[in-house]
Specification:
By secondary structure, the chain is an alpha+beta fold. It is built from nine helices and eight strands. The chain has two domains: 118 residues, 3-Layer(aba) Sandwich (D-Maltodextrin-Binding Protein, domain 2); 138 residues, D-Maltodextrin-Binding Protein, domain 2. α2 packs across α9, α3 crosses α4 and α3 crosses α9. It is globular, with a radius of gyration of 19 Å.
Amino acid sequence: MNRLLAEKDNPQADVYWANEPIRAELLKQQGISVSYSSPEAAGIPQRFKDPQGHWTGFSARARLLVVRKDLKDRPDSILAYTDPRWQGQGVIANPLFGTTTAEIAALFTIWGDLRGKSFMDSMRANGVRISTSNGESADFVASGEAQFSLVDSDDGFNRVKQGKPIETVFPDQEQQAIGCMIVPNALLQIRGGPNPENAKKLIDFLLSPESERKLAFSDAAQIPLHPGVNTPAGVPRIESLKTMDLNYAEIARTMREIQPFLEKWMQK
C-alpha cells in the first residue's frame, strides 16, 4: 500500500489485490484507484463492494472461534470473553494489529464507543490472554494453554486439517445476534496504470465464481462471496452464515480513531 502511495504520480502497477478491504478503502480515499464495476461481480452482495465501484470484495475469511474439542459447553459468541464461566480461559491476538484491530473497530461501529470500550475493559477484567498473532492464538488452544480464541478462518481450518484437537465455531449466529465478521479480499484498479484494459481482464478473472471455487479448495480455504459456489467440507457457503452488517469505509475511519484507546488498553 505504501509503495502504491509513493508511486501515485507515476503508477507502475495496474491492479491491487488486498487481503482485506480496509487498505483498499484507504487507497480510494487517497485517489489511487479508479472506478471499475466488473460484470463478474454481479452476483457478489453489494455490502462487499465499494458503492462507487473503486474496490470489490471476493473470497473471504471469516472471524471465528477455535475451541477445544473436548469442551462440553462450547463458547458460541465473542461475548464469551466477558463471561465469568470462561475467566482466564480465552486468548486473543494483539488488538493493535491485523484483523483483530479490524474486528474491534467493527464492534465499535455496531455498538458505539461506550459499549465498545466497556466490552474491551470487561474482557481485560475477565483475564483475557494476549498473543502475538491469530496463528499463535489457534496454537494456544490446540496445545491446551487456552480453551478458545477468536481467529481468522484459515487459521482454524488449517489446524483442523492438521488433526489438532480443536473445532471451529462461527460465532453469534442466533437470530438477534450480530453475526460473524467477514473479511473479504478486495481488488481495485490503479488510476493511471500502464495497462488499463488488461487490468480489467485480470479483475474479471479473479472475481469469477470459478476463481472463488479454486480459492475455497486451496489451503487458504476461503469463503466464496458468489452464492452457490461449491466448497469443500468445513468451508461454508456465504448464504449459510449470519454475518455482521458492515460499512468497511466506516471501519477504516474507526480503526484510526480508536488507536489511542487500544494503545492504553494494552498497557493495563
